[in-house]
Amino acid sequence: MHGVEPIPADNADPDQWPSSPLPGEDPVAAQGEGRRRGFGIGLLKGMVTTARVLMRPTHTAEYPDVRPELPPRSRGVIALVEENCTVCMLCSRECPDWCIYIDSHKETIPATTPGGRERQRNMLDRFAIDFSLCMYCGICIEVCPFDALFWSPSFEYAELDLRDLLHERERLRQWVTTVPAPPPLDPAAPEPKELAAAERAAAKALAAASRPAGAEAPAGAVERPERPPRTPRADRPARPPRVAPADGAPNPPEATS
Questions:
Q1: Residue 88: which pLDDT band, with cuts at 50, 70 and 90?
Q2: Tally of helices (H runs) and strands (E runs) in the chain
Q3: CA-based, 20 to 30 A from 125: which of 55, 138, 215, 224?
Q4: 251 Cβ contact partners less than 8 Å away, ≥ 6 residues apart
Q5: CA distances to 73, 78, 101, 150 from 130, in Å
Q6: CATH architecture assignment, domain 77-178
Q7: Of 71-75, 127-131, 169-173, 227-231, which range is least confident?
Q8: For residue 137, what is the DSSP state?
Q9: Domain coordinates in residue numbering, the chain
């Protein structure tokens, strides 16, 4: 029946949909006219876009002769400040790609005062990052509690061999010189508590050093007496042995050292 259009498929091109014929018009001729009209509009839109882009200046950068100007906080490569690393393993545990490899050993530090305890410290043996696996998410830098990892905007470390993208700590230390300085703090921001506490401690130490010997402390200052050194455990007197009480006798009190 004339005037009835077939329902187009969902994935059909809209320009190829049949147009509604006028009363008394042949449906086949109306359908061909609609296709020609849609093709002309699409061609005109494409020519307008081409003319608009043709008048714009080009933005081609002839790398490496022209170096790109990257933002200061670009994620290029990860730098390691080895002196700040305490081998806490947080970065290695939180890495979603498991591309950080850390080896360490423990060293015993002798006591600095008589009767003091010896301390153990973790010593870094290996710190490596495999950049062929790294996804540059920055989680390791965010979770580091001692500021041992930093982003560097350097990106020119491509290799011909994939295995050369494994950077050991010697190479990670070289990227520290390319780390940009941190942005200045907001002048309206409050002073950090750590900085205020350090300034108070420095002022107190300076006042104590500048005070002459035998002079009285200023009003309100509380001087704590120096604690005597602890007696080594080997030099302490031995506790007397306990004697079993006789039948019916009360237990004697223990001697206190």
A1: very high
A2: 5, 5
A3: 138
A4: 245
A5: 21, 11, 8, 16
A6: 2-Layer Sandwich (3.30)
A7: 227-231
A8: -
A9: 14-54, 77-178
